[in-house]
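Table S4 entry, Histidine--tRNA ligase.
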Amino acid sequence: MAKTIQAIRGMNDLLPEQSPAWQYVEGVLRDVAAAYTYQEIRMPVLESTDLFKRSIGEVTDIVEKEMYTFDDRNGDSLTLRPEGTASCVRAGNEHGLLYNQTQRLWYMGPMFRHERPQKGRYRQFHQFGIEAFGMPGPDIDAEVILLSARLWQAFGISEQVELQLNSLASNEARARYREALREFLRAHEAQLDEDSKRRLDTNVLRVLDSKSPETQQVLENAPKLSDYWDDESRAHFEGLTQRLDAAGIKYVLNERLVRGLDYYNRTVFEWVTTELGAQGTVCAGGRYDGLVEQLGGKATPAVGFAMGIERLVLLLESQNKIPASQVVDVYLMALSESAELKAPAVAEKLRDQFAGLKVQLHSGSQNMKKKLAKADKSGAEYAIIIRDNDFELKHLRNRDKDDLIITDLAQLASVFQTTNSK
Ligand code: ATP
Ligand code: MG
């Protein structure tokens, strides 16, 4: 037998058994985005490598070690997108969607990062993202956070997620803080983990979210970012928290929340859960006022977030929040040769008459017992058995009366009359 070929490590098939959960989740995401008047944008999965280097930052985890980068046949360096914001800004600039306009956009699709695969962390994963362009005030930060909060509400997991907030302030304030932090950490360099030592020079803010307990211990006495906030950023942050308070959204200030991408300023936030082990961040975002200009557009403020759909589905599964789905409502079988010839036409009529009815037509010649066994295995609510001149409706499962799909037998009978008379 030929050797079987397997999927790439960390890149998962989504099997029929799992797709109803994903369709449910995607449907809610779309509906909630629409309720806030966000419109969908779809970008290619491949972009110029430079796009991500210039936006995410050269010394971030993503660009340093996680990108799928290769030369195409023309020798151009291309990268499978590791995230959506850079592509979205690129597309917005390219099509003139951003300058002097307001845009509320969402996207959904696969992202690619070469990471060590584990629960909630994959090499191909999916994000749903929101981006709002052209609005500088804290009102729009509040809007994207409220949109995410409504998602948890819709999914029934508000109790399982916590909102963490911080402000990275202005570029100047952050630069001053960086210097202070670097100076402090240099004095304690010996106690830092290797990654953090390396980051002292390249990306010192990232030391703040080091997972090493020793490093976290050192950070207890480190200078605090909020002591370096500039007045405008402080007012912006207060404007946001006042709006969240008014809307009844709880949050905690996490001074060590800095995010792994370089383009953020002012507001940053994460929705975190304790239900998924180490991969606890389900949604992360913030303001990125400099990015549009950095990528060649006219200066345009922006704010957004990205949500990991795998982590969201895992969280919903852990809380039993995925609604049951029905693949087959009616299993249709014929018990005579002439009925068999009519069966596909009857199935069509059923689909015409009962909107949304899921009809599976038995295929193959087996005896009635086997056909009924298949009908039962299909999970169908009814079997319909057609004979030469009549039909029988069999209830395979007891449902609440409200859930019954075919309640009107007269309507069902009419299906057979019209097919018979042909
Ligand atoms: P982490 O700290 O877990 O690596 P991140 O900061 O790299 O996350 P972002 O770039 O902010 O993640 O992406 C936003 C969201 O996308 C994350 O909060 C998470 O839900 C999801 N995500 C990121 N990387 C992966 C991955 N490799 N597999 C599955 N989901 C992911
Ligand atoms: Mg990461």
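The two ends are 51 Å apart (CA to CA).
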